[in-house]
UniProtKB/TrEMBL annotation:
Cofactor(s) needed by this chain: FAD
A Gene Ontology molecular function term of the record: FAD binding
The protein's name in its UniProt record: FAD-dependent oxidoreductase
Gene3D superfamilies noted in UniProt: FAD/NAD(P)-binding domain
Provenance organism: Luteimonas wenzhouensis
PANTHER family associated with the record: 2-OCTAPRENYL-6-METHOXYPHENOL HYDROXYLASE, UBIQUINONE BIOSYNTHESIS MONOOXYGENASE COQ6, MITOCHONDRIAL
Pathway listed: Cofactor biosynthesis; ubiquinone biosynthesis
Taxonomic superkingdom: Bacteria
InterPro entries noted in UniProt: FAD-bd, FAD/NAD-bd_sf, Ubi_Hdrlase_CS, UbiH/COQ6, UbiH/COQ6_monooxygenase
Domain FAD-binding residues, every copy: 8-318
Length: 392
C-alpha cells in the first residue's frame, strides 16, 4: 500500500484549521501533504489583521501541544479574564469571570494572519510537504486512496483527503457533500478602536435590536470590534467618516467604555449559517468553515474548526496506539457524526440567540433582559454556559 499511496493524508486548504490539521496529524507520525491555492501574506506587527479569533482554552491547549502557542503569544496575543454580556433593552448583565470559574483565564484574542503564519513555520519542522500554489481541479475516490488532480496536471494520492478549503469548498462539492445555507441578511463590521476607559481585560458584548456589538480587549489598551448589522445599515456605517463612525459606535455601545474612536481601516463581511450535510464521504473528511460556518456572536467559528482537528488527532492517536487502522471507515464515520452534531448544536444555538436578541418585538424585549440577568445570578448555569464555550 505504501508503494501505491504516497501520502497518508492530503490536506487541502492552508488556513488556521487546515494548517493545524496538517501539523497535528504529522506529529502523530502520519505522512502529510498540505496543498493551498495561495498563502496568506506574512504577519506584520505594524499591519494588524482585522480578522481576530477569541481562542478558547481547549484550543490554546491544542496549539500548545503543537508547539506553536509560545510563538503566537510571544508575537502578540491578548488574554481576557472576564466577559460581560447585556441587553440594550435593559436588565442586568451576565458576567463570566475567570476567578469565579476557578480558571486562569477565559481565552486569548489572536489575529488570523499571525496564527496562520506561526502554523506554517511549524509545518516544515514537522516534516509536512507543502505545495503552494496548488489548485485542485478534480477528485477521484478509490477503495484504498483518493487522488487529487491539480491544475498543473500533476496528481496527489492519499489514504485520506481533508477538505479545509473554506466555506465555498470546491473539494466538498467534488466529494458530493451538500451544504445547507441560511443568509442572515447581516454583515459583521470589524476594525480596531480605542476607548476612553480601559477595557479591563474584559470582552464586552451588547445585544441591540439590529444585532450584537462586541468589543474585544486588544493590546496597548485598544479593542477589536465585531458589530453585527443589517446589510444595508452596515454599508451605511462603513461609509461614515471617522467622527460619525465614532459617534455611532459610542451610542451603540451605550458608552460603556466611554467614547469609542476608530483606529485605522475597517471592513464588513456577510454573515450566514452553513452546515454541510455530513463531514465524511468515501475518503474525504470536511473540517472548519468547509463543514460549518456559524454566527460570530459567540466567537466560536474557528474554535469549532480546531475542535474538528483535535478530535481527529485524538482518534488517530488512539487507533495507532492500539495497532488498528486509523482510517477504518467506521472510525472516520464516528468522528464525522460527533463533530457534525456538535457544530449543528452550536450553529442553531447561536442563531436562536441572534433571533431572540436582534429584534424589537415587544414580548422578547420584555423578557430577554430579565432572563439574562436571572441566568447571571445562578452560578451553576453560568459555569455550564462557560464550559460549553470553552470546549469542556
Amino acid at each position: 500500500m505504501r508503494r501505491r499511496v504516497p501520502h497518508d493524508v492530503a490536506v487541502v486548504g492552508g488556513g488556521a484549521v487546515g494548517a493545524a490539521c496538517a501539523l497535528a496529524l504529522a506529529r502523530e507520525g502520519l505522512d502529510v501533504r498540505l496543498l493551498d491555492a495561495a498563502r496568506l501574506p506574512a504577519w506584520s506587527a505594524g499591519d494588524p489583521d482585522l480578522r481576530v479569533y477569541a481562542l478558547a482554552p481547549d484550543n490554546v491547549a491544542l496549539l500548545d501541544s503543537l508547539e506553536v502557542w509560545d510563538a503566537v503569544r510571544a508575537a502578540r496575543a491578548q488574554p481576557y479574564r472576564r466577559m460581560e454580556v447585556w441587553d440594550a433593552a435593559g436588565g442586568e448583565p451576565i458576567v463570566f469571570d475567570a476567578d469565579a470559574l476557578a480558571r486562569p483565564g477565559l481565552g486569548w484574542i489572536v489575529e488570523n494572519r499571525l496564527l496562520v503564519d506561526m502554523l506554517w513555520r511549524a509545518l516544515e519542522r514537522a516534516g509536512v510537504q507543502v505545495s503552494c500554489p496548488a489548485r485542485v481541479e478534480a477528485l477521484e475516490q478509490g477503495a484504498e486512496a483518493a487522488v487529487l488532480r491539480l491544475e498543473d496536471g500533476t496528481a496527489v494520492a492519499a489514504r485520506i483527503v481533508v477538505a479545509a478549503d473554506g466555506a465555498a469548498s470546491p473539494l466538498r462539492r467534488m466529494a458530493g457533500i451538500g451544504a445547507a445555507v441560511h443568509d442572515y441578511g447581516q454583515q459583521g463590521v470589524v476594525g480596531y478602536v480605542r476607548t476612553a476607559s480601559p477595557h479591563q481585560d474584559t470582552a464586552w458584548q451588547r445585544f441591540l435590536p439590529t444585532g450584537p456589538l462586541a468589543l474585544l480587549p486588544w493590546v496597548d489598551g485598544a479593542c477589536s470590534i465585531v458589530w453585527t448589522l443589517p446589510a444595508d445599515e452596515a454599508t451605511r456605517i462603513l461609509a461614515l467618516d471617522d467622527d460619525a463612525f465614532a459617534d455611532a459606535l459610542t451610542t451603540a455601545s451605550g458608552a460603556r467604555l466611554g467614547e469609542v474612536r476608530p483606529l485605522g481601516r475597517r471592513a464588513g463581511f456577510p454573515l450566514r449559517r452553513q452546515l454541510s450535510d455530513r463531514q465524511y464521504a468515501g475518503r474525504v473528511l470536511v473540517v472548519g468553515d468547509a463543514a460549518h460556518a456559524v454566527h460570530p456572536l459567540a466567537g466560536q467559528g474557528v474554535n469549532l474548526g480546531l475542535r474538528d482537528v483535535a478530535a481527529l488527532r485524538d482518534q488517530v492517536a488512539r487507533a495507532r496506539g492500539r495497532g488498528v487502522a486509523w482510517d477504518a471507515p467506521h472510525r472516520l464515520a464516528r468522528w464525522a457524526r460527533a463533530r457534525r452534531s456538535d457544530s449543528a448544536v452550536a450553529a442553531y444555538a447561536f442563531e436562536g440567540l441572534n433571533l431572540l436578541f436582534s429584534n424589537d418585538a415587544p414580548l422578547p424585549t420584555l423578557l430577554r433582559g430579565p432572563a439574562l440577568g436571572l441566568a447571571g445570578r445562578v452560578p451553576p448555569l453560568v459555569a455550564l454556559f462557560w464550559r460549553r464555550a470553552a470546549g469542556a
